[in-house]
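// run 5 | inverse folding | seed 20
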């Protein structure tokens, strides 16, 4: 229909799949994909393999910049959305440009979370969310022999595997917050600890981080419980939380993520949220669930796009590996794969 314009914010697995699906479901409608990242769409779950040197950067990509061009999807890479005006149906970019839309898909994913009691040490901790982070890890690892992993989220297990492949010494600090928003019980912690120890990792269970001092570019002195360690890198892995602060004040309903109905609809005309940033209502559970993970994000991206193009497809809670904690349901299938 003339005058229509669909915008997707986010070029991760959910945004990428949404764009490809819209191209098929609404072939005549212009589609713009906005991403603060500078690259095409890649698989973040492969970043640990890149760090391990098992794959090259070119192996990460699902849709490079040219792939979008070929499909007539306008990619605005390296542009951050600063706000969304839902009444005026405008997306406002950092550089103040305003883009009108008739349909909008929010696929802004997550950002690494650092627990409040560790914020003081944040600047000394390395996280891993995007390609730039991975490149920083690779650079640092050229100069250091040991790494302390704090947390234990699903990403950290992939990174630990990469570090072992690079023959680095790995210390792993696990506590009940490790799989946030799940709280680990003793049994779960022991199971993870046993798996890691069996692979040569030195596991520190239930100890508190008391202090960190940077001794040099390649050495940090860390005080954990009664132990003192010297490590080259401190990696912080406490899960991802939705990257939705820029939407505060938009009128969207938000809790941990953007609240949507089972069709991923936000309640605002033509506006859907999908992937890691969405919190989805399930009528049978009478509660919202979140799914974190690559395959879920792609599936949800497809559903949001189909519904924006006029479909009526429900997002279903994924199969077996769903854990429930305090009303939040999390698909944690991937941490078991280590
Ligand atoms: C290192 C790592 C390893 C992982 N391993 C696995 C695994 O083994 N298995 C698995 O299932 N999952 C894994 N995951 C998780 C998986 O990658 C995510 O669940 C998935 O990427 C979520 O997709 P998404 O599209 O919802 O969000 P994201 O991939 O987070 O993409 C969000 C996009 O939105 C953009 N964006 C955000 N805010 C703005 C803004 N204001 N303006 C413009 N653009 C914006 C970002 O730049 C990004 O392009 C891993 C993640 C990481 C980081």
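// decoded
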């Amino acid at each position: 229909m003339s005058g229509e314009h669909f915008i997707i914010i986010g070029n991760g697995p959910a945004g990428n799949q949404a764009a490809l699906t819209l191209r098929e479901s609404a072939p005549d409608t212009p589609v713009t994909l906005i991403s603060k990242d500078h690259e095409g769409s890649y698989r973040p779950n492969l970043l640990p393999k890149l760090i391990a040197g098992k794959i090259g950067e070119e192996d990460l990509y699902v849709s490079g910049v040219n792939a979008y061009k070929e499909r007539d999807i306008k990619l605005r890479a390296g542009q951050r959305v600063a706000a969304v005006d839902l009444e005026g149906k405008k997306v406002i970019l950092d550089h103040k440009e305003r883009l009108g839309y008739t349909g909008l898909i929010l696929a802004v994913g997550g950002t690494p979370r650092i627990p409040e009691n560790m914020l003081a040490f944040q600047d000394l901790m390395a996280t891993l969310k995007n390609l730039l982070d991975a490149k920083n890890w690779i650079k640092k690892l050229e100069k250091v022999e040991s790494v302390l992993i704090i947390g234990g989220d699903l990403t950290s297990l992939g990174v630990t595997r990469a570090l072992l492949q690079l023959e680095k010494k790995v210390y792993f600090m696990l506590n009940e917050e490790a799989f946030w928003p799940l709280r680990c019980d003793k049994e779960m912690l022991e199971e993870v600890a046993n798996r890691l120890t069996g692979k040569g990792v030195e596991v520190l269970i239930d100890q508190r981080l008391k202090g960190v001092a940077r001794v040099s570019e390649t050495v940090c002195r860390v005080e954990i419980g009664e132990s003192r360690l010297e490590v080259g890198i401190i990696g912080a892995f406490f899960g991802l939380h939705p990257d939705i602060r820029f939407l505060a004040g938009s009128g969207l309903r938000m809790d941990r993520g953007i609240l949507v109905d089972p069709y991923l609809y936000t309640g605002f005309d033509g506006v859907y949220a999908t992937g890691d940033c969405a919190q989805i209502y399930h009528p049978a559970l009478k509660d919202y669930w979140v799914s974190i993970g690559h395959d879920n994000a792609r599936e949800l991206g497809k559903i949001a796009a189909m519904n924006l193009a006029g479909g009526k497809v429900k997002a279903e809670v994924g199969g077996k590996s769903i854990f429930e904690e305090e009303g939040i349901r999390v698909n944690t299938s991937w941490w078991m794969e280590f």
